Amino acid sequence: MKHILLFFSLAFTLIACNSGSDNAESKTDTTSHTTHTTTDATPAAGENHMKNMHDAMDGSMQQMKSMSMSGDPDHDFAMMMKHHHQGAIDMAKAELAGGTDGKLKQMAQKMIDEQQKENAAFDSFLQSHKPAGNSEYGKKAMGMMTPMSDIKMESGSLDAMFASMMIPHHQDAVKMAQEYLKVGKNAEIKQMAQKVIESQPKEIQELQDWLANHK
Questions:
Q1: Mutual orientation of helices 102-128 and 73-98 as an angle, nearest 10°?
Q2: Count of domains for the chain
Q3: 29 belongs to a structural domain
Q4: What does 76-113 look like in DSSP terms, one character per residue?
Q5: CA 132, 135, 139, 140 torsion: positive or negative?
C-alpha cells in the first residue's frame, strides 16, 4: 500500500512540476529527504557490525585476562580456549550479519558450527574435572596473546576486517595449543589441542590468500 501511495505522490509531483505549481517543490523536497535518510542508514549499519566484531575479540581477550589460573594445565587450557573460541564465534556471527563475501561467510558459518561443538566439550570437561597442580602454563599462554593494539585491522569493509582480525586470533590459538601439549595430561583435551594445531593454519592461509586477492 505504501508503494502505491508513493507512486501516486511521485506522479503528482511530476505533473505539478510541469505546470509550475509551488506545491511540487515541497513534495520533491520531501521525497529527496526520504531518499537521503534511507541511504545514510546503510553506513551506520556497517559501522555497527564492525564495532560488534571488534568488541567480540576484545571481550574474549578481557575474559581470558581476568581468569584466575588454577595451575592445572588441562583446566586452564580448556577455560582459556573456551573464551577464545567464543570470541571467534561472535566475530563470525558479525560477519554473517553484515559481510558480503560468499567464501568468508561460508568460513564464518563453519567456524561457528565447529567451535560451538568444541565449547560444549570444554564445558563438559570443566564441569567434571577437579583442577590440581602448580603449572605456569596459564601465565605463559596469556603472555603469548597478541595485544589488540598490535593487530592491523583492515577497515575498508567488514569482510576485510573479519579476515584481518581472524588471522592473529587463529595464530594465538595455535600458540596456546602448542604450549599446552608440552605439559597437558588429559587425553581428550590434548586431542582437541592437536586439532587446533592442524586445522587453524589452513584457515589462516585461506584468509591470507583472500586478503591478498582483495587489496
A1: 150
A2: 1
A3: no
A4: HHHHHHHHHHHHHHHHHHHHHHH---HHHHHHHHHHHH
A5: negative
Digit-by-digit pLDDT tens for the chain (215 residues) are: 333 333 334 333 433 444 444 444 444 444 444 443 333 435 566 678 888 888 888 888 888 988 999 999 999 999 999 999 999 999 999 999 999 999 999 999 999 999 999 999 999 999 999 999 999 999 999 998 888 777 777 767 999 999 999 999 999 999 999 999 999 999 999 999 999 999 999 999 999 999 999 98
Dihedral angle, C-alpha 176, 179, 184, 187, nearest 10 °: 70
- For residue 147, count CB atoms less than 10 angstroms from its CB and return exposed for 0-12, middle for 13-18, buried for 19 or more: exposed
CB 111 within 8 A of CB 92: yes
Residue 65 belongs to what domain range? 45-213
Asked, for residue 33, whether it belongs to a domain, the answer is no
Residue 190 lies in a domain: yes
Which residue, among 127, 175, 172, has the nearest Cα to 148 in the 3D structure? 172
